[in-house]
Structures are given as structure tokens and as C-alpha cells.
Amino acid sequence: MSEWWSYGLADFLLFSPRVYFRLFETLNTTWWLAVAAAFIAGLVACGLVMRPGFRGNRVILVLLSLIWVWVSYGFLWKYYQPINWAVPYVLPGFVIEALLLALFAARPLPLRFGWRGDFSSMVGAGFLAFAFVIYPFVGLIEGRELLQAEIFGSAADPTALGTLGFVLMARGTWRWLLVPVPLIWCLIASATLWVMDQQIAVLPLIAVWLTVFSCWLDLKNGVTTRKITEAELAEPAD
To answer: How far apart are CA 193 and CA 45, in angstroms?
Structure first.
């Protein structure tokens, strides 16, 4: 029997790239209505987060929570779990992320989304643009069909990336609780894509680096520790 240190990442991957990307084709064609609804919900949240004045904070949190619930069941459990033995170990993290988002929506905690115009906001906006607009078409570069597109709100990779974008556009110390799960998933996604010889494997790693740097910069500049005013805590009327 070989020693455990003789194994590489490829030894733990029990599926081929063809099987993996076929999951998205099946998901997109079988559950197209849910996929479209989740994507539209994400677009609504994205539109709200880009508005100044911290408007629609609770709506953003509710929509993101529902999206993470759908990704947990629709993609991870229903399609990815049968071919990946590691899914049951990471699925609780997705559920925790959904519960945290729901909790923050239910209670007036000091966490507010909104465009600030600083470096982290620009990185966050870049993540959102990439997750919504570019990521679904990245597979074309690898020679995959458009039906196999990974769409925000249903596929785990762009959803994790987009969620990091939302978090970077938020203020308040509570946002740190929303960072670990999508950050860890980006690392897992990068390793998986790397083993499958996909050129986009470097993108999640870049997202991890930019997120860590942006969080450090926000901590240094007091963005996450500066007290949120009563006006920001209140839901403003249009």
C-alpha cells in the first residue's frame, strides 16, 4: 500500500472534466426556471448594492440567503455530491452562510451594503461584474458549450466570487463572518480546476488574494470598525 504522502490532488478527483461540466448543462436545462430566477435575484441585489445611501440592505441579504440555499441543494447536493465525496464535508459551510445572511436580514445588525468609492468597493464591483457577466462565458475559451455555462446563483464558483464582491461593498465588523465560506470555496474551486487542467484555475486564486488584501486595507483604514450612524442603520425610504 502506498504511503499517504505519495498521493497528489489528482488522486482524489474521481470524475473527469467532461462529467463535471455536464453537471452544469443538466442543471441549466432541467432547472432552467430556477436558474433564471436565481440569476435575476442576484441582479436585483447587485443593482441595490450599487446605489448610494445603503438602501435595500435587508432585500440584498434575503436574496443572497435564498441563493445560497438554492446552490446548496440545487447544485452541491443534487448534482455534485454524487460524484464528489468531499461535498458532504463542505455543504454545512454553505448552509451556515445562508443562515448567517438570513440572520443578518432578520436583525438590525451593524452591517450595511453600499457603494463607497474606495479600493475595496471597486474590487467588489469588479467581482460582481466578473461573476455575472464574464464567468458564464469563460467556458467558451476552454472549448465548452454555452449550455454548460456556470451562472451566478446556481453554480457554486461564480456565486462564491460574487458573494465576496457583495461583502467587500459592505461596512461593519459583522461582514467578517461572511468571508470564510466563499473564500475557502474559491480555494477548493481553484484546486479542482487546476487538477482538470483548466486555465481559469488561476482566477479564484486571484480573487482570494484581492479579497484578503482588500479586507486588510479596510481594517487598516477603519472601514470595518468605524461606527455606523443611526441614519445608516435605518432603512431609508425612497
So the answer is: 28
